[in-house]
């Protein structure tokens, strides 16, 4: 059938309701799915909350090109909330910071630090805070072995193993206030 005929005339043939080929423009017929060019598909779990919706991550040339809900997931059956649907921006956003930034006390601008220096600064502050706020025992002499001077709030973009290790570390350091954003 001639594709140059108006859709109204084309639908009188094999597509009387105009829902199939008769309604498609040339542009629509030539469109390809964003996922068609992917080299591989990796199954993953959405990092934003504790629900654990399944995701399919489409990778081309070792870069994430698309993330969609996994229809085989018994939890989400292919659906994602707005945050999960936008999770591709976690890796591809042009606004994503890729360098350590630090703003010293009373400064008005951020400065870049190398990762090793930033990690040393954090470790020094954790050790100093723990030493200054350590409570070995209460007034009656009962052992406490804790610090109320630091707390930790984990993020849902960390995986289970990372949150487990963080919980173990802060518990071993004597911190009492340990929580995860996914539970709040």
What profile does the largest beta sheet have? 3 strands, antiparallel
* Helical segment count: 6
Q: What best-fitting shape do the alpha-carbon axes yield?
A: elongated
- What is the helix/strand order? HHEEEHHEEHEEHE
Task: Give the low-pLDDT segments.
Answer: none
Work out the radius of gyration.
Answer: 27 Å
State the helicity in percent bands: 25-40%
Q: What distance lies between the first and last C-alpha atoms, to the nearest angstrom?
A: 60 Å
Instruction: Determine the structural class based on helices, strands and strand pairing.
Output: alpha+beta
Q: What integer is the average pLDDT?
A: 86
Beta-strand content: 25-35%
Strand order of the biggest β-sheet: 1-2-3
**E-strand count:** 8
| Total domains | 3
Describe, in plain words, how this protein is organized in 3D:
By secondary structure, this protein is of the alpha+beta class. The protein has three domains: 1-31, no CATH class; 40-92, Phosphorylase Kinase, domain 1 (2-Layer Sandwich); 113-183, no CATH class. It is built from six helices and eight strands. It has helices spanning 7-10, 26-30, 82-85, 89-92, 115-133, 160-172; strands spanning 40-45, 54-60, 63-69, 100-102, 111-113, 134-137, 143-154, 175-180. It has a three-stranded antiparallel beta sheet with strand order 1-2-3, with no helix packed on it. Strand 6 (134-137) and strand 7 form a beta hairpin. The longest helix is centred in the C-terminal third of the chain and has 19 residues, at 115-133. The protein is elongated, with a radius of gyration of 27 Å. It starts with 6 loop residues before the first helix and ends with a strand. The model has no long low-confidence stretch (mean pLDDT 86).
